[in-house]
Amino acid sequence: MSKIWASHSPPVVVRCRPFNLAERKANAHSVVEWDHVWKEVSVRTGGLADKSSRETYTFDTVFGANTKQIDIYRSVVCPILDEVIMGYNCTIFAYGQTHAGKTFRMEEEDPLAGIIPHTLHQIFEKLTDNGTELSVKVLLLEIYNEELFYLLSLSSDVSESLQMFDDPHNKRGVIIKATLMNAYSSLSRSVFSVTIPMKETTVDGEAFVKTGKLNLVDLAVSENIGHSGAVDKRAREAGNINQSLLTLGRVIIALVERTPHVPYREPKLTRILQDSLGGHTRTSIIATVSPASLNLEETLSTLEYAHRAKNILNKPDINQKLTKKVLIKEYTEERTSETGSSCNS
């Protein structure tokens, strides 16, 4: 059984990273300003002399270049970890241009630990304190050139490309199978999932299992292929990302406008994220941008996607199932009640 909570729009957080070495060497100037109090990000779209041409966006939280990893973690992740333990599906997107700081936000090791190390540490800490009978399952997927790869394989000499199809009986949603291929690129998208089935008992002694799930998603934003200098293989990678993200944009627009058909099934990315966008998942979005004039187009694209996503509605529910023993007991009691009613009528 599941308990459905009220619809909610995903909180959207924006973080502008500091200038990197390449931007400093190119003498790029800053085009991004942020206001923590008003929760606004403003982008100057004219030249250095043009102070009036700008686009301004409002978000749930805005972080500047001096923000620490732990501050982002406490603001975005901590509030939803308890909900994962309660049995909710939760997703956090890190969304932005290549080199905008998404993976750094997700994966960096101590002393600058990102979201994934902090999350795993705190999940096990909470579960230890909880004393519940449970198990923890971890999945790490990469989407590269519309191919899926399982990155936690024990095989050291080959990467596994994965096939994905829908369960015709809808018992498991999307199913993933392995085939042999080999690929790797920084222009990929990754999905890190932690699933926690927990066995608990009610005050009446009835056993049930609830399952919490947390998806941490690293999304590459579309690149301007000419701007980035991508050629041959790199250009094809960027082209696949661009096509995938165009569809993601159409999905977001369809959800915001409440259209009957949402194009989830076109690229693998939107199929994997289907329940996180307009489904039964509690979703948060971290949009990462560069402050540099070199990346003006990509920064505006990221902020447009993030601003649209604020209007998506999700309906989170708890994944809670009664054990077979309890289901049989309920069925027997129901049948006994029906028999008694028939005899008395």
Automatic annotation (TrEMBL):
SMART domains: KISc
PANTHER family, per database record: KINESIN-LIKE PROTEIN KIF11
Localisation per UniProt entry: Cytoplasm, Cytoskeleton
Entry GO MF terms: ATP binding; microtubule binding; plus-end-directed microtubule motor activity
PROSITE patterns referenced in this protein's UniProt entry, alphabetically: KINESIN_MOTOR_2
Family recorded in the similarity comment: Belongs to the TRAFAC class myosin-kinesin ATPase superfamily. Kinesin family.
Protein name: Kinesin motor domain-containing protein
Kinesin motor domain segment(s): 9-312
Lineage top rank: taxon: Eukaryota
Gene Ontology process terms (BP): microtubule-based movement; mitotic spindle assembly; spindle elongation
Principal localisation: cytoplasm
Keyword set, alphabetical order: ATP-binding, Cytoplasm, Cytoskeleton, Motor protein, Nucleotide-binding
Amino-acid positions noted as binding ATP in the UniProt annotation, renumbered to this chain: 96-103
Gene Ontology CC terms: mitotic spindle; nucleus; spindle microtubule
InterPro entries documented for this protein: KIF11-like, KIF11-like_kin_motor_dom, Kinesin_motor_dom, Kinesin_motor_dom_sf, P-loop_NTPase, Vik1/Cik1_MT-bd
